[in-house]
User: Which sequence fits this backbone?
């Protein structure tokens, strides 16, 4: 699994370098009236035996160069490499957990359940107590926040806005993102 992860990072780094090279060529040729087509040979992916001990994170590469829409897209793709994919089903949605220290964990949830709560309960990402208002979530991704004990609670967000409904009654909506944050 580590080799696959390293290989993905190496391929991503190669793609980003190619994008950066192309942006420099475009910038360098902007002053000329006629541009010659440039062909770039395809690079061979690194073998599993090779490692890249001196790799630089994508965010550092972009900060040292001029940022373009192409590099921003590559950075956004790099940011999603830490997304954990869970579940099976025809519906998918992004789910983010922000703990009390501000650490963020991102998931891509796949499900056939109708509500966000059903999907997260099935995957054992949330746990809590039933109340007259619905599920009172106390544990998310193995982290417990209990207002009665520590004065903190898990707040539920839909599309980065504080939810007006509980997780157990919120339908999974195409294009929406969901999050729990300790507050």
Assistant:
């Amino acid at each position: 699994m580590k080799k696959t992860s390293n290989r993905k990072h190496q391929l991503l780094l190669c793609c980003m370098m190619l994008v950066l090279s192309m942006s420099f060529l475009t910038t360098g040729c902007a002053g000329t009236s006629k541009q010659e087509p440039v062909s770039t040979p395809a690079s061979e992916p690194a073998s599993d035996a090779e490692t890249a001990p001196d790799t630089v994170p994508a965010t550092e590469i972009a900060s040292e160069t001029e940022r373009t829409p192409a590099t921003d897209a590559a950075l956004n793709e790099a940011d999603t490499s830490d997304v954990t994919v869970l579940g099976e089903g025809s519906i998918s949605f992004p789910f983010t957990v922000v703990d009390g220290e501000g650490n963020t964990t991102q998931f891509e949830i796949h499900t056939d359940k109708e509500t966000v709560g059903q999907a997260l309960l099935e995957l054992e990402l949330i746990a809590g107590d039933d109340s007259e208002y619905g599920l009172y979530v106390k544990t998310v991704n193995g982290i417990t926040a209990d207002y009665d004990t520590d004065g903190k609670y898990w707040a539920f967000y839909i599309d980065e806005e504080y939810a007006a409904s509980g997780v157990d009654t919120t339908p999974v909506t195409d294009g929406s993102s969901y999050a729990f944050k300790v507050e």
